[in-house]
Amino acid sequence: MKKALALALATVMMLGLVACGGGDESTSQSGNTSGSQGDTSTATVANKDKPLVWFNRQPSNSSTGELDMEALTFNDDTYYVGFDANQGAELQGQMILDYITSSIQASIDAGEEITIDRNNDGIIGYVLAIGDIGHNDSIARTRGVRSALGTGVEVDGAINSDPIGTNTDGTSTIVKDGEITVNGTTYIVRELASQEMKNSAGATWDAGTAGNAINTWSASFGDQIDVIASNNDGMGMAMFTGWSQANGVPTFGYDANSDAVAAIADGYGGTISQHADVQAYLTLRVLRNALDGVDVDTGIGTADDAGNVLSEDVYKYVDEERSYYALNVAVTAENYEDFLDSTVTYAPVSYQLDAETHPTKNVWLNIYNAADNFLGSTYQPLLQKYDDLLNLKVEYIGGDGQTEGNITNRLSNPDAYDAFAINMVKTDNAASYTTLLG
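The structure assignment produced for this chain is given below.
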């Protein structure tokens, strides 16, 4: 009897030890640290510890541009994915400057009047559609255009990015007249007008507002407008189809949306590809790596087991900012045919991951404005292709572009997800989301 009791007690103790010893394996549910790739449960992973990627809108102070490092270091698996705003802004400005210079030179070579100077007043006048005065990307693009065209005015060491209203007489203190010299002749470059394209409901980067703006500007001083610059293609295309195409005025945008790229054949001046294919991949790849418990560089700078890898000429990583940035490419009449379909995945990172070693995980992802042309027509379709390749089951949430609450009220059950990808309405509002995650 004593022997039987002793055996029973020993059995109970052994079972207890097994239960305790198995704790490490069973609690590494998202695979963040253990590398255990067969476990798909998230029951014991605190939401505050789950992988988080901010994308498209970098957490930052909308007034100063200072990064919100508290948001960017929310946990060990928090990163930002976007593109190199300053590099892209410089490209856009240079693209516009090159177009103006080459147009003037072509007219000189042909022995004709300078056709880009539509009213022959010696002033190359442009108007500028500003997306969101508090958005770092918008600020950079406005500065990029003004810097390249010589119209920027420095304030506290940086070019002023404020809208000017109208400036047809060149008296604005926010901008100044620039100069371009071609073949010994100097032309004035003037920003005639600029405004933030914000609608009455509060949505920024608004194409409808841009279309209304060009109608107003053209009615007031249309023959002075020689070039249109826009912070994105959505606004640029509204201005192009609404006025500039019919009047032969080149319009330059940003994002390389498919409709804008196609419109280059019809006179759209050019756009900038921010490598949305690379951005979308990085957005989900960073999450995949954290969920698999592997080095964050896997499938990015270092080839993964399927052969996915990015070269250094298409992205960069800035460690102190916890940020991945895709690099930009100018899209013009010379190369636009290579960019006609903006929803094709980037070939070097288009290999399917094995489902056994990279099991399906659940991701909550939001788009700040379901009606945004770039995010809705380019970015999300790319994400939906990459989520299959990376074995991620993503729930896509479309916002109204106006309030964080329209999005956050649909994150009522974060326990149901393994990771999160967040695209804020305003860059200041990261806490609206991190509060929900603990």
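Interim note for the steering committee: The radius of gyration is 26 Å. The longest strand covers residues 185-196.
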